[in-house]
Amino acid sequence: MSVVAKEPRPSSVLGEIGVPRLFAVGAVVILALALQSTVLSYATILGVIPQLVLVVVLCLAFTDGERVGLVAGFFGGLLQDLQLPEGSIVGLYALVYTLVGYAIGVMREYTPSESVWTPVLTVAGATAVVEFSYAGLSIILGQEWIGLVTTAKVVGLVVLYNTLLTPLVFPVVKRVADRYRPERVHRW
Amino acid sequence: MYRRSGRGRLLLLIFLALSILIITLDFRQNEGGPLERAKDISATVVAPIQRGLTTVFRPVGEFFASIGELGGLRSKNQRLEAELEAAESEIQNARALENDFEKLTELHDVQEPWTAMETLTASVQSNVSSNYRWARVIDKGRDDGIRPDMAVVNADGLVGKIVRPVTEHTATVLLLIDPRGAAGARISDRRDTGKIQGNGDNDRLALELIGSNSDVFVGDIVVSSGYNEGIFPPSIPIGIVDEVIGDVRAPDHTIIVDPFVNFTELDYVLVLLETGRSVAQDGDGG
């Protein structure tokens, strides 16, 4: 998607998120969802699909902070919700991803270094929290759910798969984020 | 890194409120409400990309799968030739039977069998990106006459049923192996009916018969039961009995059924364009 990078229109609520950046974030999230529901859903690890949308949201939050993180989280989560067959709660992924996008965006300022391991470990930890929260909230809200042992197995495999994907996804997301950041501090 | 004021807390509150609003809207199940509209829009945006990716990557996957099969091709060919001959003679028999059957059906004014129903072939466009739901999205939708509760089959047997979201050009197939995709079922040639349900496993369905008074054996064929127990037309093949746990006459038995359909390799499916329930109830949405 070629969006001409013009001067961002700062608004009080959106903070420093410019319109071009909003489009870039949207495009990346949509592509992630399309990949997750087609190619990746057949390239499973023991039948488990990775949550690429979540990885992208976390990487965006990590490179661009809490505002971009929570907007990407809401948008990505909602798109994922809208695809689910009836019987799932629409809006639950949106809620959980919004929260985790914000949290990781805030937490990144306290991470020790620019180490390559930081985003990888962040994704591993955040994925576990998100997956268990989603399962927990679904059960609390009265959803029919698979057994707890199976759930734990699925969550473990999702954490593993998401962690493996991060070294591939993070550089791509960082490039897009750098390209559309209003104040271009550094480019690739 | 620089600091900014507010940390986007207002933005967070706005989007959290939005999420919760959406969840409440979903619980109210407004038909044709803003959520249905959002599903249509999201499908319009995402579906073309999914179709593109599936078109590009499906042949790649099949290519790698066929490399692994090369060695067995010759023996497979011989086996298939033998099977073909056997099948041809069976077809002759079947034609004669079909003739008789049609005459009898007309005579007794019996419900139209599912094999005679109008069908629509659809290509599987994507999976749903969840590890807790078992469903596929197909490339036909409301505009093609697809409505929720229609049965979906392939050459092997019952695949599942159409559920929401059904958008203009896409529809969702809830697979029989989804825990919420239960169907009315019975043992072929017998009257005892029950419920068949999956738990996400690709090769295990659990059948529970209600008030059964005949034995069930490994190798018995399981088919869908009629309209009055569920939404599926009767006699669609489901699977073969793999294991019988407990006494089928007692309430706490389980019959493990191995489904005929290979749920990991669904490329094309057939939608039966009639439902057991009144189609008119759902039909005015489009």
In short:
Chain A has 188 residues and is mainly α.
Q: Which helices and strands, and how do they pair?
A:
The complex is a heterodimer of chains A (188) and B (286).
Chain A: H1 19-37, H2 39-42, H3 52-64, H4 66-83, H5 92-107, H6 117-140, H7 148-179
Helix pairs in contact in A: 1-3, 1-4, 3-4, 3-5, 3-6, 3-7, 4-5, 5-6, 6-7
Chain B: H1 9-28, H2 34-69, H3 73-108, E1 119-127, E2 135-138, E3 151-154, E4 157-163, E5 171-175, E6 183-187, E7 193-198, E8 205-209, E9 221-224, E10 237-245, E11 254-259, E12 268-272, H4 279-283
Antiparallel strand pairs in B: 1-2, 1-12, 2-5, 3-4, 3-12, 4-5, 6-7, 6-9, 7-8, 8-11, 9-10, 10-11
Give the averaged pLDDT of chain B, no decimals.
82
Query: Radius of gyration of chain B, Cα only, in angstroms?
Result: 23 Å
Q: Roughly how much helix do the residues of chain B carry, as a percent range?
A: 25-40%
Q: Summarize the amount of helix of chain A as a percent range.
A: 55-70%
End-to-end Cα distance of chain A, whole Å, is 19 Å
Tell me the number of structural domains of chain A. 1
Overall residue-averaged pLDDT value of chain A: 86
Quantity of strands of chain B, as a count? 12
The neighbouring-strand order within the major sheet of chain B is 1-2-5-4-3-12
Spatial gap, N to C terminus of chain B: 52 Å
Low-confidence runs of at least 5 consecutive residues of chain B? 277-286
- Count helical runs of chain A: 7
Class of chain A in CATH? Mainly Alpha
Give the oligomer, counting copies of the same chain as homo and different chains as hetero. Answer: heterodimer
State the major sheet of chain A: none
Number of strands of chain A: 0
Task: Supply the CATH architecture of chain A.
Answer: Orthogonal Bundle
> How would you spell out the order of helices and strands of chain A?
HHHHHHH
Percent strand of chain A equals under 5%
Pattern of helices and strands of chain B:
HHHEEEEEEEEEEEEH
Strand content of chain B: 15-25%
Task: Write up what this structure looks like.
The complex is a heterodimer of chains A (188) and B (286). Chain A has a single domain, classed as Arp2/3 complex 21 kDa subunit ARPC3, CATH 1.10.1760. Helices cover 67% and strands 0% of the residues of chain A. Chain A has 7 helices and no strands. Chain A has helices at residues 19-37, 39-42, 52-64, 66-83, 92-107, 117-140, 148-179. In chain A, helix 3 (52-64) crosses helix 7 and helix 5 packs antiparallel against helix 6 (117-140). Chain A is globular. The relative contact order of chain A is 0.15. With 286 residues, chain B is α+β, with helices and mostly antiparallel strands. In chain B, the strands form 2 sheets. Chain B has a 6-stranded antiparallel β-barrel with strand order 1-2-5-4-3-12. A 6-stranded antiparallel barrel of chain B has the order 6-7-8-11-10-9. Chain B is globular. Residues 277-286 of chain B have low confidence and may be disordered.
